């Protein structure tokens, strides 16, 4: 197998990888990098390296899930690649289209790359499928446990078997199906995400219980604002809170959803995952201006308080009262208002600011568990953000654990591997 990391190999964002098995050519994911607004992966390098003469040379594009860093540049395929099969799940098609069309509403900082008609057209070309059998290869998708519709990708030829994890988690979460680890065959090459590669996260159950206990304390007197990613994190938090109230672990107070989180939660309902019901209120227009400080919970996007997003507008009011709290449940980029509020103390506020980890990415323990179970011959770590020294030390550890029969690779963006 030939591998070329277009983007997202040694960074988190803009994931897109070119693989060639025999004469067959595929793209795994076509994402955007949220830290590089207005820029998509350097697909022109595929032509410069003579890997493709046009996007139409591809045998398929396979999208693992609907987060923008994995699907955001899909309309680029329209450049002479309209007839290329796009393989993904039904939920990814529905949710990905909504995200691309709605992203400009989320923040003033968003730079629109693709026009509405391009987005509409590329998604109209997708006929969702979770397996594809051709004359000399087979593609299978398996649940990855990350968000609704997220999939691992298996490509099988007569000579080799490759498995791309996309973003995955072995944890039991409420709103996504768990990975069927026992039914996945051992691959020759494992293309594995490494978001939390050197981290061992706190127990997911303990983190959830801690969040519920903290929420109870806040809503005894005030407002709990939870900035959350519109896709995946919002729905998980809403369902967790509803379950906690039903089991009397959490005081019953109004739950409000606002921002792009509303549209995505409505789509979850349509896709069979009940998020919005009589217990959850959709915030009225400009609710952030008229709301009082009576006990309530508000979950809304953006998860990083991007400027002029709904969560940013709510935070300006919530932060003024010492009984209130702004509590984060996701990653904060260093350049965002969320990071500055949480870590830099550069704001003047009275409310409490807190954070809990709801990561739906496998940590070191889960990644090792995946490798233990699958026993691949070669492992390529992608979607990672490590220093070179950390990678060298990790490679030594892995070689010590698994021996020289298993090889490990840490490619940079633009690097080629013949595996």
From TrEMBL:
UniProt keyword annotations, A-Z: Hydrolase
Entries under SMART domains matching the protein: Beta-Casp (SM01027), Lactamase_B (SM00849)
Matching InterPro entries: Beta_Casp, MBL, Metallo-B-lactamas, RibonucZ/Hydroxyglut_hydro, RMMBL
SUPFAM superfamilies attached to this UniProt entry: Metallo-hydrolase/oxidoreductase
Residue intervals of the Beta-Casp domain: 234-341
GO molecular function list: hydrolase activity
Organism for this UniProt entry: Candidatus Cetobacterium colombiensis
Protein name: MBL fold metallo-hydrolase
Annotated EC: 3.-.-.-
Lineage: superkingdom: Bacteria
Annotated Metallo-beta-lactamase domain residues: 13-223
Pfam families per the UniProt record, alphabetical: Beta-Casp, Lactamase_B, RMMBL
């Amino acid at each position: 197998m030939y591998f070329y990391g277009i983007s997202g190999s040694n960074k988190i964002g803009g994931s897109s990888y070119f693989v060639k098995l025999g004469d067959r050519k595929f793209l795994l994911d076509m994402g955007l990098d949220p830290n590089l607004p207005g820029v998509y992966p350097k697909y022109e390098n595929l032509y410069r390296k003579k890997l493709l003469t046009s996007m139409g040379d591809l045998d398929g594009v396979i999208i693992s899930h609907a987060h923008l860093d994995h699907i955001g540049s899909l309309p680029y395929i329209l450049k002479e690649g309209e007839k290329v099969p796009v393989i993904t799940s039904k939920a990814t098609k529905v949710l990905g289209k909504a995200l691309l069309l709605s992203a400009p509403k989320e923040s003033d900082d968003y730079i629109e790359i693709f026009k509405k008609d391009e987005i509409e057209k590329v998604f109209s070309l997708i006929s969702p499928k979770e397996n594809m059998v051709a004359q000399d290869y087979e593609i299978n998708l398996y649940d990855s446990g990350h968000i609704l519709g997220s999939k691992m990708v298996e490509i099988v030829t007569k000579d080799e078997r490759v498995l791309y994890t996309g973003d995955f988690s072995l944890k039991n979460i409420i709103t996504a199906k768990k990975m069927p680890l026992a039914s996945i065959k051992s691959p020759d090459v494992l293309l594995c995400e490494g978001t939390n590669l050197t981290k061992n996260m706190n127990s997911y159950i303990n983190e959830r219980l801690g969040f519920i206990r903290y929420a109870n304390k806040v809503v005894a007197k005030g407002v709990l604002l939870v900035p959350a990613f519109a896709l995946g994190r919002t729905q998980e938090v809403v369902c967790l809170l509803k379950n906690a109230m039903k089991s009397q672990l959490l005081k019953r107070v109004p739950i409000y959803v606002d921002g792009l989180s509303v549209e995505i939660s409505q789509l979850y309902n349509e896709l069979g995952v009940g998020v919005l019901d009589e217990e959850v209120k959709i915030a009225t227009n400009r609710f952030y201006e008229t709301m009082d400080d009576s006990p309530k919970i508000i979950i809304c996007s953006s998860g990083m308080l991007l400027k002029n997003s709904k969560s940013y507008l709510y935070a300006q009011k919530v932060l003024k009262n010492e009984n209130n709290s702004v509590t984060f449940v996701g990653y904060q980029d260093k350049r965002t208002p969320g990071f500055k509020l949480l870590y830099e103390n550069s704001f003047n506020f009275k409310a409490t600011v807190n954070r809990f980890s709801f990561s739906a990415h496998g940590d070191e323990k889960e990644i090792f568990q995946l490798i233990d179970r699958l026993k691949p011959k070669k492992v390529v770590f992608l979607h990672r953000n490590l220093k070179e020294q950390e990678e060298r030390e990790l490679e030594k550890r892995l070689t010590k654990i698994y021996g020289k029969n298993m090889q490990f690779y840490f490619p940079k963006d633009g690097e080629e591997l013949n595996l």
